[in-house]
Each structure stands twice: as structure tokens, then as C-alpha cells.
Amino acid sequence: MKKLALHWQMLIAIVLGGLAGLLLNQFSLPADHGLMVTLKLLGQIFMNGLKLIVIPLVVSSIVVSICNIGDEVGRMGGNTLAYYIGSLVAAVAVGVLCVNLIQPGIYQDQPLHNVIPLPADTAAALAKVQDKSLGDAVNVVLSLVPANLFGAAVEGNMLGLIFFALLYGFFLGRLPAELREPQLKLWTGLQSIMISITQLVLYLAPIGVFALIATTLASTGFEVLKPMLWFFATVVIALALHMLVSISLFLHFVTKVNPLRHLKAMAPALLTAFSTASSNATLPVTMRTLKERAGVSERVANMSAPLGASMNMDGTALYECAAALFLAQAYGLDLSLGHQLTVVLIALLTGFGMAGIPAASLVAIAVILGAIGLPLEAIGLLLITDRLLDMFRTMVNVYSDSIAAVFVARQEGEALPTLRQP
After folding, report:
1. pLDDT tens, 285-311?
2. Rounded Cα–Cα distance for residues 358 and 265 (Å)
3. Measured between alpha carbons, how far apart are the two ends of the chain, in Å?
4. Minimal CA–CA distance to 401: which of 281, 266, 277, 249?
5. 8 A C-beta contact, residue 159 and residue 143
6. Which residues contact 264 (CB under 8 A, 6 or more apart)?
7. pTM score > 0.90 for this model?
8. Which CATH number is 6-411's, of 1.10.287, 1.10.4030, 1.25.40, 1.10.3860?
9. What element of type H or E holds 157?
């Protein structure tokens, strides 16, 4: 019998966890009841698994990604990287703008926690934020260069670790081949191992998701569903604006390609991305679609698409920012400029290196929440809508990858069938 795909398992877990949580809410079971303790334990094990893989997965992924782009000599690699940076910045800007305008974390004119009991203590969350030394932009910059790398790992200073990984990968890519290759194999092996461990954690994810959603809804009841749908709508609006406006306008004006024709050409890859929620799983379809339907040469498609699957995560970066700011609003935390800059920087940097596997963004969100002092247990709220949003943001990731390939192809002088008609 064919095994049920992970995304269907997650969807079933979300539905069953929601039903179980709403049922438990009706019985008003105390927190020390055996069933509640068991559910909380299962959810905590899943969260601990996410914490366990954060540092080695993020660091190894970024080192390998940055080192590999160093292998791409000439203007093709430079043009690809330039597009990645620009599109990620645009995605994060759209996400921050939408959350600040729509304010999904404000419910009935007040922070969500004033209406609905949220996971973890609000006062403790506020104290954590106030205790952080990231109160302004200067301290954020200082955190990029930790005095002790291992101390940064212990303290959870992911900005410093990510910055080190970027530097390490950059200069590793510039070593002579005899020195570079052994280290690259080591880091690639570590990344492969961490992806395997991540897949193990995600293999257990349906149980963890069921437990987290059940415990969340057991305390909040139906009341949490309406604001979470509002958050869902906010993220979908932001993703749509980035996909159909910001990068489509770039496609129209810079590459002279008709966005509607390109969107139609990439439909098979976009539908595959939406159904699998994995850029890596979609990669073969993306490459074939770029070559056969979008008219990109094999040389450009073979270089750009694989890099994009691991380095160009527009939708993921947008979601990470939106989720962190939503939770800050929900907990009534007024994030300073420094904290918001931290959110943006981590979203941008992890957008370059997170593995294109389902639910990998949960790892990045755990990084962001830890960096600004928000309770990690709040991820339980996000899981209510995460599965569906994962499908939307992966589709945006793949669409942006395709635009990167078209941009490079145009810079290389290739004539494409999707060009705008004069």
C-alpha cells in the first residue's frame, strides 16, 4: 500500500488536532490532567527536535549555498545573486508592510492575548524581549560579529552564526580546489545529515502538530480561529502582492517578458510546488518547464534553478517576517527598531540558505522567535494555518526562481517565446 504523503499527513493532523482541541475545550480539562500532560509532552518533544537541528542545519546550508555560488564564475552567477538579493528584500518589505497595515495580531481593538489565552506567559515573553540587548540598530550590528562563536551558539545569537556562515562559505569558495573540495565535502555531508535528521523530525511532525494544535485549542477554543484566519488572509495577500506585482513588474519592465505568458508557461511547476510544498521536490519539473515552455536555455536553467531551490526563498522570508510580527502584535509586544531589524535580517539571511523541504520555515521561525525573545511555544498558533500557507509560499518561491532564470537568460542575450509583443 502506498504511503500517504507528508503534506497529507500534516493536513490530517491539523484537522484532527483542531477537532480534538475543540472537544477538550468543551470538557475544560485542567492542565495537570493526564491527557493534557501527554499532549503537552508530545508537542514539547517536537519543539525540542526543531531546536536541536536549528544551528547545524542553518549554518551548514548557508556555507554550502554560498560556497557553491562561488563556483559559478562570470556574470551569470553575479546576475543570479543580484536578483536573489533584490527579490528577497522586496518580499520582506511587502510582508512587513502588510502586517503593519492589516495588524492581524490585534483582535477587537486590542492584542490577541487580552482576548484569548495564548501559549506561554505574556509577562515572561515581554521580560525576555526587554532583557535582550537588541534595543537599537547599533546592537543589532554588534550582534553580527560575536566575540565568541561557541558562546553565540549557546546564547542563541543566530545573527552572529549566520554572518559567520556567510563569511566562511564566501571564502571557502575562493580557496584553491585542493583545499576547498575536502571542506566542501565535509560541509555538504553535514548538510545532508542534517536534512535527513530534519526529515526524521518532520516524519514525526504529524504527531507533534496534532499535539500542539490540540493543546492550543483546548485552552482557546473557537475564539482563536477567527484571528488565525485573518492572519492567513494577511499572508496570502502579501504573497499575492509580491508574486503578481513586485516581481511581475520586474519581469515586465526589466526582462521585457509578458508576466501573464510567463505565468501560463510555468503553470506545471507552480502547481507541483503548491501540491508538494517543496522547492526541491519541484526542481525537476521547474527545470523542464523553464526549458520546454519558458524557452530558457539548458545552460541557464541548469545553473539557476538548482541554486534557486536552496538560496532564493522569497515566500518563506516573507512568511517568517509576517509570522514573527503577527506574534509580537498578538502578545502585545511593541518591538523596537532593533528587534524589527533583527527579524528582517534573519529572514533575509535564512532565505538564502534554508533547505527546500516541507516545513523548513518552522526552523527559521524558531530562530527568529528565539532571537527576539518571543516564546517558542507560540509556534503552536502558527501551525493552525501553516500547512496551507506552506503551499502558497512554496509556489511563490518557485515562481521567483523562474524569474531569476529568465532574468539571467535575457542578460545572456537569449530570445524567449514569452517576450512582450512590441
Report:
1. 888 899 889 999 888 887 788 778 767
2. 24
3. 54
4. 266
5. yes
6. none
7. no
8. 1.10.3860
9. none
